[in-house]
Amino acid sequence: MTKVLIVLLIALVLEAVGVVFLSRGLKQIGEAEKLTATEVARVIRRGAINPSILLGVALETIFFGALLYLLSQRDVSLIWPLTALGFVLTAIAAKLVLHEDIHWTRWMGVALIVIGAALVSYSEKVKRAPLVANPPPVEPAFGPK
Q1: Residue 70 CB: number of other CB atoms within 10 A?
Q2: Phi/psi zone of residue 31: left (φ > 0), alpha (ψ -120 to 50 degrees), beta?
Q3: Could you give the angle at the alpha carbon of 60 between the alpha carbons of 57 and 64, nearest 5°?
Q4: For 32-37, what is the mean pLDDT?
Q5: Selection from 56, 57, 31, 60 nearest residue 44 by Cα
Q6: How far is the C-alpha of 57 from the C-alpha of 18, rounded, in Å?
Q7: Cα(6)–Cα(75) distance, integer angstroms
Q8: How many CB atoms sit inside 10 A of residue 129's CB?
Q9: Does 80 score more than 90 pLDDT?
Q10: Alpha helical stretches, state H, the chain
């Protein structure tokens, strides 16, 4: 399980940084002024050569490769919810790299995500706990002993 968690953590860091670079690149190339084929082609061309977008896409590609590995090793009901921790790392990266102002209510949402991921992780521990072969008999609470 330790190897899976290390791969997941590395993948989530790469994903968070990738999303931040994608956001930076998209802000650099700007929006299409009009919805015409020429204008859309211009935006696509600028995006295809933007270093931030290219780095973001590369990091996201590595993340998805790691995700494929993780899904081949563990249950999807464990791995996929834990990828929500990427939102935590993305919020931190947005604060540090893009200098976004993140309201306290958004941080509370991030805290809820951490709590949810902890519950999912705990469920894996409970699932793998050995069952007692011969549990001790339960004495009745009332009546003769």
Answers
A1: 20
A2: beta
A3: 135
A4: 82
A5: 31
A6: 7
A7: 16
A8: 8
A9: no
A10: 2-29, 37-49, 51-73, 76-82, 85-97, 104-128
Q: In whole angstroms, give the CA distance from residue 11 to residue 61.
A: 10
Q: What is the rounded CA–CA span in Å between residue 79 and residue 19?
A: 19
Question: Residue 84: what pLDDT?
Answer: 85
Tokens at residue 66, please? 């790691």
Is residue 100 over pLDDT 70? yes
How many whole angstroms separate alpha carbon 143 and alpha carbon 105? 54
**What is the percentage of the chain residues whose pLDDT exceeds 70?**
88
The label of the residue with tokens 């706990």 reads 129
pLDDT of 9 reads: 93
Alpha carbons 53 and 48: distance in angstroms, whole number: 7
Closest listed residue to residue 24, CA positions, set 84, 80, 100: 100
Selection from 11, 142, 20, 114 nearest residue 66 by Cα: 11
Model's pTM, two decimal places? 0.71
Q: For residue 61, give both structure tokens.
A: 């590609």
Residue count (the chain): 145
Query: Which residue, 87, 80, 86, 89, is CA-closest to 120?
Result: 80
What the block records as the tokens of 22 is: 């994608």
